[in-house]
Here is the input.
Amino acid sequence: MIKSKLTGTGISPFAALSIGCTVTNAIVAAGATLASATPLGDDINVVTVATANQGVSLRGDLTPGDNQKVVNYTAVSIIVYPATALGKISNGVAGAGLALAPNKVARFICIDGVSFAALVSA
Here is the structure.
């Protein structure tokens, strides 16, 4: 919706696209480690297929202040990992993931290029 509102104000569609969010639906989680997790590429990522404790990993090109969201629309908990083994989520252990329960949404805010604060829905 933000893209259409921006183009209505005279901003070019290309500029509006870069300002607005991108969404990927139907993501399949994979692996049980950071190295084998499915990498996420968009602003909003909807995971729809997973078995227990399979994972996804956040983007490695985010800068401080950037956000990435993960929606778990599966019947099992998934693990969301930082992009690298040096990254932390909510000041946890480096390289460790955050368990995201079924039907929950998490917003990950990049703190320093590798580490993230996490806000998880109730």
Q: What stands out?
A: Strands lie at 23-28, 38-39, 44-49, 55-57, 67-72, 78-81, 98-100, 104-110, 116-120.
